[in-house]
DNA sequence: TCCGTGATTTCC
DNA sequence: GAAATCACGGAC
C-alpha cells in the first residue's frame, strides 16, 4: 500500500487517466479514513479541448490551479449543488486534468453512507449501495470532498492516492459524458473505466 | 424519460 | 445582469 508520488501524476493526461484506474483514493477527515477504488476517469486536455474549463487558455480564479504543477486537486461546483473532483496533470503552465467519475467504496462504508443519505450502511437497499459513489457528484458527497478540498497537494496527508496493486481488470474507453456542447471534442474517447465494475456510472 | 433543483463562474 | 453549466433524484 504505497502512496503515489508526484511523478505519477505528471505527464500525458490520457496515460495518467488510465493509470489512475484501480488506485485507491483516500480522504482523511475528522480523524476518519474514507476511501474508494477509482473505476472511472475522464481526461481533459486543456488548451485544445473544447470540453475543458481551460480551453483556449482560459485562465480565471477557478481554473488557476490547473496551470500549476501536477498532483494537486481541482474541485469545482456544478449546477449549484454538487462538487466534482479532478487531479491536475502535466507540468506548470499546461492546464490539463483528469476528472474522477466513479469509485468503488472500500473503507468506512458507514461514514460514506451517512454522508450520502444520512442513513447507516446496514439500512441501505441494493440500489442505494450501487448509487453510493457511482458518479462524480456522488463520490464527492460520499467521501466528503468539497470546496475546502480544492487546491490540495495530493502528496500531502489529507487527500491522496495509494497503489493497492489492484491490476486484475481490463480497461475500456468511451466518449466522455455530458459535454455535447463541445462539438468535435464530444466524440473523443477520453473516458476510461474498469470493465464489468458495477460502480461505473454509465456503459 | 423528463424535469426541477439551485449557486458559482463566466460572458456580454 | 444574464446565461451557462464535465448531475442527481424523484416524478411520470
Structure description:
The protein is α+β, with helices and mostly antiparallel strands. It has a single domain (2-105, 145-191), classed as 3-methyladenine DNA Glycosylase, Chain A. It contains five helices and nine strands, in the order βααβββββαααβββ. A hairpin with a 2-residue loop joins strand 2 (24-29) and strand 3. The protein is globular and about 50 Å long. The chain binds a DNA duplex (12 and 12 nucleotides) through residues 42, 44, 51-53, 58, 60-62, 76-82, 84, 86, 99, 101, 131, 135-138, 176-179, 181-182. This is Putative 3-methyladenine DNA glycosylase.
Write the topology of this structure.
Elements (H helix, E strand, L loop, with lengths): L1 E2 L2 H4 L3 H7 L4 E6 L2 E13 L28 E6 L3 E8 L6 E12 L1 H9 L8 H5 L5 H7 L16 E5 L7 E4 L16 E4 L9
Antiparallel strand pairs: 1-7, 2-3, 2-7, 3-6, 3-9, 4-5, 5-6, 8-9
The structure holds a DNA duplex (12 and 12 nucleotides).
Keywords: DNA damage, DNA repair, Glycosidase, Hydrolase, Membrane, Transmembrane, Transmembrane helix
Family: Belongs to the DNA glycosylase MPG family.
EC number: 3.2.2.-
* Helical percentage: 10-25%
What does the largest sheet look like?
9 strands, antiparallel
Please tell me how large the radius of gyration is: 16 Å
- Cα(first) to Cα(last) distance is 30 Å
Along the chain, the helix and strand elements come as: EHHEEEEEHHHEEE
| CATH class descriptor | Alpha Beta
Question: Please, what is the CATH homologous superfamily?
Answer: Methylpurine-DNA glycosylase (MPG)
The count of domains is: 1
Q: Which architecture would the CATH scheme give at its second level?
A: Roll
Strand % is 25-35%
The residue ranges in which pLDDT falls below 50 over 5 or more consecutive positions are none
Task: Provide mean pLDDT, rounded.
Answer: 93
CATH topology-level fold name: 3-methyladenine DNA Glycosylase, Chain A
- The helix tally amounts to 5
- Shape verdict: globular
GO molecular function: hydrolase activity, acting on glycosyl bonds
EC number: 3.2.2.-
Protein name: Putative 3-methyladenine DNA glycosylase
Family: Belongs to the DNA glycosylase MPG family.
Amino acid at each position: 500500500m504505497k502512496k503515489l508520488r508526484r511523478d505519477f501524476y505528471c505527464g500525458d493526461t490520457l496515460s495518467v487517466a488510465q493509470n489512475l484506474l484501480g488506485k485507491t483514493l483516500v480522504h482523511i477527515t475528522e480523524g476518519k479514513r474514507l476511501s474508494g477504488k477509482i473505476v472511472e476517469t475522464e481526461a481533459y486536455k486543456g488548451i485544445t479541448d473544447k470540453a475543458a474549463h481551460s480551453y483556449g487558455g482560459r485562465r480565471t480564479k477557478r481554473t488557476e490551479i490547473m496551470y500549476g504543477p501536477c498532483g494537486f486537486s481541482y474541485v469545482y461546483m456544478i449546477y449549484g449543488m454538487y462538487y466534482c473532483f479532478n487531479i491536475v496533470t502535466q507540468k506548470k503552465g499546461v492546464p490539463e486534468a483528469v476528472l474522477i467519475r466513479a469509485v468503488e467504496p472500500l473503507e468506512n462504508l458507514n461514514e460514506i453512507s451517512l454522508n450520502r443519505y444520512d442513513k447507516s450502511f446496514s439500512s441501505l437497499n441494493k440500489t442505494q449501495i450501487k448509487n453510493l459513489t457511482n458518479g462524480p457528484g456522488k463520490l464527492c458527497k460520499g467521501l466528503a470532498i468539497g470546496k475546502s478540498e480544492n487546491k490540495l497537494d495530493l502528496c500531502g496527508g489529507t487527500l491522496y492516492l495509494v497503489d493497492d496493486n489492484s491490476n486484475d481488470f481490463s480497461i475500456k474507453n468511451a466518449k466522455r459524458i455530458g459535454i455535447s456542447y463541445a462539438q468535435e471534442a464530444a466524440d473523443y474517447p477520453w473516458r476510461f473505466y474498469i470493465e464489468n465494475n458495477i460502480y461505473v456510472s454509465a456503459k
